[in-house]
């Protein structure tokens, strides 16, 4: 019998510029916008839902300014608590990417995994932090993650998280598979240009190599005042064979949904015995050949 799980992704634009609005106002408007989309997901009986990277504002790493530190929160904090209530209301697992400050002066790019009963199943902190000018000034804002590559047992299945730039590194994606992930969500903020052609290449490759589902989320639109480029949406689900299940639009705020049969993970692993045929005793150079 198929173990179908209705999954959802939210891709959204940020329509409020810090030139014209206080950061606290932008944060509230974006949270309100996403609450409506979560309610829509609830009406559509979505069981697992993931939002985009640091969903409650623009991609502020286009500049280096300490003012954005004020948008960070502890966990639990007001945003986490709000979405815990929504998760419990709709019996929905929610992957909630926020800007985390666990202690004074310490900041992480974090995703909170909230289970369907409203409890926090755990958190993932982004491990790979880019600093690629112009526009990706992330080392100014985030410490590298310090919690490894956890997989969270939720009501509907085993969830792993990778965040944006992480997707360029196959090593963590493999660990998520070895740790039992049935689906890996990758909330992102990526613009047209250098890496767009990789958007539908790398993560389906992770799905194939590790035989799990992937839910990839990207925001949409242009964010003022930065001339950073177009966030091109196209959020998608792909299956353990790397095939696209559904792909979102390029330029529209929307909820993307798909019914995924998590039993397909085991079916594919029975066919392609990649984990059986691994040779970890031969891979020492991966960690020994350090720069």
Structure, described:
By secondary structure, the protein is an alpha/beta fold. The protein has one domain (4-288): Carbon-nitrogen hydrolase (Nitrilase/N-carbamoyl-D-aminoacid amidohydrolase, 4-Layer Sandwich), CATH 3.60.110.10. The chain has 6 helices and 16 strands. A 6-stranded mixed β-sheet has the order 5-4-3-2-1-16. A hairpin with a 5-residue loop joins strand 4 and strand 5. Helix 1 runs parallel beside helix 2 (78-90). 45% of the residues are buried.
Question: Layout of helices and strands, plus pairs?
Answer:
Blueprint (H helix, E strand, L loop, with lengths): L3 E8 L11 H21 L4 E3 L27 H13 L2 E11 L2 E9 L5 E6 L5 E2 L3 E2 L13 E3 L4 E4 L8 H9 L4 E6 L13 H9 L2 E6 L1 E2 L9 E2 L3 E3 L5 E4 L6 E8 L1 H9 L13 H4 L3
Parallel strand pairs: 1-2, 2-3, 9-10, 10-11
Antiparallel strand pairs: 1-16, 3-4, 4-5, 6-7, 8-9, 11-14, 12-13, 14-15
Helix pairs in contact: 1-2
């Amino acid at each position: 019998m198929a173990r179908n799980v209705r999954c959802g992704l939210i891709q959204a634009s940020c329509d409020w510029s810090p030139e014209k609005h206080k950061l606290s106002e932008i944060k509230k408007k974006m949270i309100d916008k996403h609450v409506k989309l979560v309610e829509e997901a609830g009406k559509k009986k979505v069981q697992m839902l993931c939002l985009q990277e640091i969903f409650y504002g623009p991609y502020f790493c286009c500049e280096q300014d300490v003012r954005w530190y004020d948008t960070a929160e502890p966990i639990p904090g007001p945003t986490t608590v709000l979405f815990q209530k929504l998760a419990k209301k709709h019996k929905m697992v929610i992957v909630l990417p926020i800007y985390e400050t666990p202690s004074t002066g310490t900041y992480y790019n974090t995703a909170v995994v909230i289970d369907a009963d409203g409890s926090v199943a755990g958190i993932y902190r982004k491990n790979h932090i880019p600093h690629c000018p112009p526009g990706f000034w992330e080392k100014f804002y985030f410490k590298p993650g310090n919690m490894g590559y956890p997989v969270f047992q939720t009501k509907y299945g085993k969830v792993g998280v990778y965040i944006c730039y992480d997707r360029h590194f196959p090593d963590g994606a493999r660990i998520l598979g070895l740790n039992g992930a049935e689906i890996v969500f990758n909330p992102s903020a990526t613009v047209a240009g250098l890496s767009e052609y990789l958007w539908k290449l790398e993560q389906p490759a992770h799905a194939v190599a590790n035989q799990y589902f992937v839910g990839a989320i990207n925001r949409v639109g242009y964010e003022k005042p930065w001339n950073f480029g177009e966030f091109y949406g196209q959020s998608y689900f792909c299956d353990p064979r790397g095939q696209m299940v559904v792909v979102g639009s390029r330029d529209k705020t929307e909820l993307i949904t798909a019914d995924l049969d998590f039993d397909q993970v085991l079916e594919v692993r029975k066919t392609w015995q990649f984990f059986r045929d691994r040779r970890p005793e031969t891979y020492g150079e991966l960690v020994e050949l350090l720069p």
